[in-house]
Known about the structure:
The chain is mainly alpha-helical. It is built from five helices and three strands, in the order H-H-E-E-H-E-H-H. Strand 1 and strand 2 (74-78) form a beta hairpin. It has helices at residues 2-19, 30-61, 80-85, 100-103, 107-119, and strands at 67-69, 74-78, 98-99.
Amino acid sequence: MEWHQIQSSKKVKALLRDLKPDAPDSPLSFSSQLSLAIARQQKLHQQLEQQVESYRQVINIAPIGYLQVDDENQLLWYNHQALEMLGIPVDQPPKLPRLLLEVVRSYELDHLIEETRSHNKPRQRDWTLYPVSAD
């Protein structure tokens, strides 16, 4: 039983180190310090979510098309201008997440995204979208 407590204590200390509590030598118990650190992280997370929402509102009204994809080119987010540019009915937006190639059948766009990712800097290229009918 004592070995289990030692291991738990080590794990809590490691978590506290990762969460960077204000005072590592604080008279508070590990669980109190951990609770405070978690509360700070939750507050920071909430602030970041509010920032992301603000950016999304700006992108929604900007006169540009915007697509957000993950490492596997799953479409995570888009604005209405992007749907219009890609010929996707705004009243029937795709459910997310979804593979971008399923939504926009363009290997050129997929390749441009991969190229941007591999070079780790913005890329630009003109390409023609040939919409595929649902039939």
